[in-house]
Amino acid sequence: MFSGPRTTSEDSPDEDQFSVAALDLLDALYGAALRLTRNADRAQDLVQDTYLKAIRARGRFASGTNLKAWLYTILHNTWRNRQRDGARSRVEFDSEAVELAAEGAGLGTVGQVASPETLLLRATLDADLQAALDGLPDSYREVVWLRDVDELSYQEIANVIAVPIGTVMSRLSRGRKQLFERLSVQRERKGSV
Amino acid sequence: MDCKQIEGSLAAVADGGVSPEQAATVNHLESCAACRQALHAQITARTVLQARAAHLSVVAPPGLRTRILATARAERPESTGVLSWRGRLTAFAAAAVLVLTVGAALLPVVTERSTVVLAAQMALDHLKCFMIDGDGDGAAISKAEAEATIAREYGWTASVPASAPAEGVELMAVRHCLYGDGMAAHLLYRAHGQPVSLFILPGLVRPAAELKVLGHSEVVWTQGDRTYMLVSRAGTTAELARVASYLRNEAR
Description:
heterodimer, A: 10 helices, disordered N terminus, B: six-stranded antiparallel sheet, 9 helices
């Protein structure tokens, strides 16, 4: 995390502090880009574009607010614009259809999952968790990630993905529930008790 | 309120925030087992993600950092801009510290909450604590150890009820609970093999109560200027009241 002007650095004393603070978040931004693009080259490209825009728009960053959330917002905007310019109908149709399908499939099944939460938590492997996350619809996964991994506020998430806060919260509820179900199913398949 | 209406606010409850505005949600949860299950599912999913967040992160390719640095240098503003950014970011850092401090102070103010809302919060804390770490290494700890931990972690003393085989009570661990600005001490017991939590909230006086909240039984009592809340997910409130009666006598 950024913690004031750097005094020791191989960079010149004039090194742009904003860039330094922003670059501290590079891994997180790259991870977000990978989730959106699902492709390493496109992810790098998206991140580079995001940083360029951020550096040019730095004057609009409100100090005291969450720099990570601000960068995520630029990244998501950039991604949305690219989709619009490219395969607009395909992408939008996909995400909407997946969301609707997920809604139908996800509701009301939690009650049938018998495994205790404690065992689930201890038995879940990182690879299983990653697989369960990957299996979520994009729109759910991103909200769950921004909240539970990145700890953004609901309002920050709403800004990042450009939807109302109520939508954030219902997607969060559904995404978590689906994640739980996927983890539970994985666990049952592995035959653990 | 139906299940659909509370769906969104369930996310907020799972995040550990039971605010007075969510009283309706808590009420609905009382009567709806499916939503309670959904809440447990959400808490589990969030807890798993938080616990594994560090393992899920990726590392950006080194070349990417280099390219962005080059971009940043090419885009670097004139020196006035740099200076203004320095000032701006110093303010940003100061604000970050402020946010952390204020964030802690903004943690739920216990005294403004109804007993039911408070009890709901404790039920969630009980659930989370056992989900994350269980109750220690499975070995009971001594009264003296627990009291020393409380004195060290909280800066105040408390008489901690010891294990009592005749009562089926074992003292398992002390947790530092963040709830109420880190003020509530959290003692983990097993009562007849089932996990129970005893929260001690200093500076709070509440009428004695026995209640069912979010599928948990709770017994509340006050001694001096401290409120004690005993929480269990198993058994009946009457069974828990018997455990409470032992603990209450010992905690004097």
